[in-house]
Specification:
With about 200 residues, the protein is of the alpha/beta class. About 50% of the residues lie in helices and about 15% in strands.
């Protein structure tokens, strides 16, 4: 056997072993990938709860309402980014809370044309400053927490906040690869995370 053939055989064996190990351990590293997207602090006392846009199930709104009722902050605000069928997303979220029987007295909306989490920060941070907010709670879906936290820390390093994850019906960090919606959510969020880290 020639030297080249031996090298190719060793490379093929190495690739087969690598694929085999990845297959056997797939639950471990897929779970680690899912968990890496999630970052959640314990709730902290704050002046405001900020609920990010992009949730169409109501999970973020419900989690924020729980924090409000538990007294972690005196008021809450939706980041009303964009419109759906001509209706601002924040207004839809307020209507959802009302239909759920929750009081709206301590809620507000910050309508804005943002199309990304980074763009949302450019509208939400000045609004919070104008309201005299010195600390806030950032509420978003579990898969979105780590990226959102990094964006807000960069956009307002002087404004402290804690991140509270809302459960998402389409993403379980420990089992996301078992269903189509979970796979889609993880794929797109990892693409966005990598793009954010590259400054894109």
């Amino acid at each position: 056997m020639s030297k080249l053939a031996r090298r190719l055989s060793i490379l093929a064996l190495f690739l087969c072993l690598t694929v085999g190990i990845l297959f056997v351990t797939q639950d471990l590293w897929l779970r680690a990938l899912g968990r890496r997207l999630v970052y959640s602090d314990p709730p902290c006392k704050a002046d405001l709860i900020l609920v990010l846009a992009g949730d169409f199930t109501g999970s973020r709104a419900i989690r924020a309402a729980e924090l409000l009722q538990q007294g972690w902050a005196p008021k809450a605000m939706f980041s009303g980014a964009g419109t759906i069928y001509g209706v601002n997303e924040g207004d839809l979220a307020l209507a959802f809370l009302q239909r759920s029987g929750l009081p709206l007295a301590d809620w507000s909306n910050n309508p804005n044309p943002a199309r990304s989490t980074a763009a949302e920060a450019l509208y939400n941070i000045p609004r919070m400053r104008s309201l005299g907010v010195h600390r806030f709670i950032l509420v978003t879906s579990n898969f979105h927490t780590r990226r959102a936290a990094a964006i807000y820390r960069k956009a307002a390093p002087d404004l402290p906040f804690c991140v509270v994850a809302a459960p998402d019906p389409d993403f379980d960090p420990d089992n996301w690869w078992h269903d189509r919606e979970g796979r889609k959510t993880a794929f797109f969020e990892w693409c966005k995370t990598l793009a954010t880290s590259l400054g894109l």
